[in-house]
Structure formats: structure tokens, C-alpha cells
Amino acid sequence: MKIICIGRNYIDHIKELSNQKPMNPVVFLKPDSSVIAKNQNFIIPSFSNEIQHEVELVVKINKVGKHIDKSFSHKYYDEIGLGIDFTARDIQSNLKEKGHPWEKSKAFDNSCMVGNFLKKEKLEDISKIEFSLKKNNEIVQSGCSNDMLWKIDELISYVSQYFTLKIGDLIFTGTPSGVSKVESGDILEGYISSIKMFTLKVK
Ligand code: ZN
What we know:
Fumarylacetoacetate hydrolase, domain 2, four-stranded antiparallel beta sheet
């Protein structure tokens, strides 16, 4: 199983990190070893002083495909969930400066929180999925799939030009603004509309 992540897919988040709006989707991968096991906590790694949460809609691939045309993308998933792309922002800034790959800041053990999934037909409109993240009971991030620069079907088509999609692969679709540092003791809760998709403790 592979995890394909999209960066810079929401304008407000591009602005908060002073990044350039990309010409094409920014793509990176996380290995399966990055996934936090069910009911486990997120443990802040010792190598970073700035771990930030990025809440993201997650698409679960249900069919093998490559070079998928946008008009057929909807046939390749029937579940959408919510997760967190944990990012060691201090390490990432350093790597970015040097023009080095991001893996040490994005693909480390436990950097990928995968919450529950909802069947597509449970969601009224895929193009208007509202989601949010609460930290210690306060909303810190909220977004809507409508604000993605590249929508879910476009992302599936785009990434499948490079990577064969396999059953169970996950696509993290990018984060809206509001990313912030997590501290030991924080409780993170993710929602799609008013449905709770996960609770995660930071240790
Ligand atoms: Zn992300």
C-alpha cells in the first residue's frame, strides 16, 4: 500500500506558508510504515521542535488503474475519509532551502494518521465536503473540497500518470490553512460535516 500526498492544494494554506502557487499538483509519498496503528497515540519525534498537523480529506482507491482519464476517476474510489499529514516543519524548511527531498519531514514513522472512511453515497456532494480539525476542543482548521485547486477526480487522473494506483492506496488531498504546532497532551479530533472521523492524542 502506498500513500500519495498532495501539497499546496488550497490557496489559503499556500499563503500562510508563503509558498508559490504551483503550475501542477505538488506530489510526494509516505511509506506504509508512516501510518499510526489503530487506537495508538501520535508520539512527537525527538528530531523535530515543530511538528504541525495538516488535516486532509483522504481518498481510498478501490481498483487498479493507470493513466486514468478524469471522467473515469470516480470509478476508482467509493470511500472518502479524513486524516492528518504530520509535518516536521523545521526539518522541511531546512530541506526546502537546500532543494532536498522532503521525506525526512513528511514520511517518518507515525507521520500519517488515517481516520475513518465514509461511503461516497453517504456524502451529499463530493465537490462540497466540509471538514475540520479541533485541537483541545477548538476548531483550528476547516476546509471544503470545493476550495481545492485540483479536485479529487483531477488528482486521481494526475497521479495515475506517474504511479499505478492499487487497491487500498490512499491519496491525501492537501490541507487548508490553520496548520499549527502540536504539543504533548493535545487532543486532535477530525470531522467531516458533523461526523467525527477520528480522535488522536499527542504524546
Ligand atoms: Zn499535507
